[in-house]
Amino acid sequence: MPIFIRIGTANSSLYPTHCAMFGGAFFEKLTRLRTTSEVNNCHSDSHLVSFNHTEIEVTTATMFALTLTAELTGVTNLRPTDSEDTPFWYTFKVQCTSCRETHPKPIAVSRFEQNEMSGSRGEANFVWKCKNCKRESSATIMAAPTPYEQTEPAKPQKVIQFDCRGLEFTEFIPEGEWLAEGVDTNFKFTAIDLTDGEWYDYDEKAGEEVSIKELQWEINRA
Ligand SMILES: [Zn+2]
Questions:
Q1: Residues 70-102, buried b or exposed e (16+ Cβ, 10 A)?
Q2: pLDDT per residue over 123-170, tens digit each?
Q3: Ligand 1 centroid from CA 13, angstroms
Q4: pTM value?
Q5: In angstroms, what is the span from residue 91 Cα to ligand 1's centroid?
Q6: In CA terms, which of 46, 70, 100, 123 is 20 to 30 Å from 5?
Q7: Where do the domains of the chain lie?
């Protein structure tokens, strides 16, 4: 029987830690709930749940946000080129929260790609089986990216939010193409490359040089 469990997820107000979803049905009282950190002092984001005398390990979802702080001159609405026709591949370094093993290579996630999780646990944008501890973990991007607005001084703004189960993205690598518009002219800039940490161009309508500098990426719990 497929078992779906939601515990302390992004919707934790709907599913507080003493409740769970099993096979689509909602159970209010579990016979037992304890975090695995009580058992082995690690992967504190997973729980052991017992229901009908069977103990099941559940990995809870943690919501993270990718935040950008950047100095934009003459341009605004900086965002990745990310549509169903041209999906953006968000590149991250990833770490297993069970054993703290880091994936040897950066990985790329698209919000339009669904991958099957084992054991009928549904789908996620990214599914990874850790080579070290063999645990499967996953991540899903929650919504379309939020354009970064030009402000003076520059302030941190969330670009995307994602839900992680059993893994953490530890670093963002801004590979791929970005878009922006001239602040006053609405002039469209495409194929912006941010991998050098700075970008310069010329707004023909304004007759002025534009730039994106001092890029700082951060990943924090949302
Ligand atoms: Zn691991």
A1: bbbebbbbbbbbbeeeebbebbbbbbbbbeebe
A2: 999 999 999 999 899 999 999 999 999 999 999 999 999 999 889 999
A3: 29
A4: 0.78
A5: 20
A6: 100
A7: 1-59, 62-221
